[in-house]
């Protein structure tokens, strides 16, 4: 499978689509110093192809969230290299990382992260407002995305009026707002029951297909592994399979 996301100029240079979307090489991340130093990642290397859903499996404390934060440009590694969509993150300053996160990466979190006072439609529209997308284009994209995640009839409801599964669907729609090349999802089913969690994972699978994006999804649920194109087992900060 080699579906390609739409290439566009979005604050960072566009590169050829032949390279993997994500390339991680010998990544280390430590916190603290001396006797209290914690080695969260120990020499992690992997690639994620374009149009692929890669699942990161591991128990709490295995390093999944640390790895996703590094790939998403939310943290800096102690050593090693990360390339996202052809860009070496170590060569990007704060403004470059901000542009990358805003324009090329969509985030989905376990706690949904929706703004309580905004409607579902308004939450989905937030990333486009930050990018100063024209109002009519923004409204059309919001409508399209809410329909994609099956919530077209819930556009005016606030998060408190939605179920957990519906809130996560809104979060996925929001992550897709600026047509990212990469979606990073950290335990997106962690607060959901098993049936709803499977439905959310199936939705992510469908989104990867329909939007042509790459997805990195951290989960500890073995029942969701069959929906991924590839599974990476993370244990004690290392990929073991």
Automatic annotation (TrEMBL):
**Superkingdom of origin:** Bacteria
Select a single GO molecular function from the record's annotations and give it.
Answer: ATP binding
Keywords of the record, alphabetical order, are: ATP-binding, Nucleotide-binding, Transport
The protein's matches in Pfam families, at most eight in alphabetical order, are given as: ABC_tran
Q: Which PROSITE patterns match?
A: ABC_TRANSPORTER_1 (PS00211), ABC_TRANSPORTER_2 (PS50893)
Which stretches make up the ABC transporter domain? Answer: 22-240
The question of whether ATP-binding is a record keyword is answered with yes
Protein's UniProt name: ABC transporter ATP-binding protein
* Species annotation: Streptacidiphilus monticola
């Amino acid at each position: 499978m080699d579906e390609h996301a739409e290439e566009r100029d979005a604050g960072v240079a566009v590169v050829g689509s032949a390279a993997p979307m994500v390339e991680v090489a010998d990544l280390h991340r430590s916190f603290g110093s001396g006797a209290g130093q914690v080695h969260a990642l120990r020499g992690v290397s992997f690639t994620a192809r374009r149009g692929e859903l890669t699942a990161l499996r591991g128990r709490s404390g295995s390093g999944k969230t640390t790895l996703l934060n590094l790939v998403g440009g939310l943290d800096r590694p102690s050593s090693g290299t990360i390339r996202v969509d052809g860009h070496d993150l170590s060569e990007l300053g704060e403004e470059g990382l901000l542009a990358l996160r805003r324009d090329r990466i969509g985030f989905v979190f376990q706690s949904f992260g929706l703004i309580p006072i905004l409607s579902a439609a308004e939450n989905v529209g937030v990333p486009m407002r930050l990018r100063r997308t024209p109002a009519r284009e923004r409204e059309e994209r919001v409508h399209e995305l809410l329909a994609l995640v099956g919530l077209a009839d819930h556009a005016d409801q606030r998060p408190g009026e939605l179920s957990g599964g519906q809130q996560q669907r809104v979060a996925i729609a929001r992550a897709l707002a600026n047509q990212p090349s990469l979606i990073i999802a950290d335990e997106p089913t962690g607060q959901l029951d098993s049936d709803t969690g499977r439905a959310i994972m199936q939705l992510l699978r469908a989104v990867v297909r329909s939007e042509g994006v790459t997805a990195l999804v951290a989960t500890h649920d073995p029942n969701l592994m069959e929906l991924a194109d590839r599974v990476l087992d993370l244990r004690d900060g290392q990929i073991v399979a």
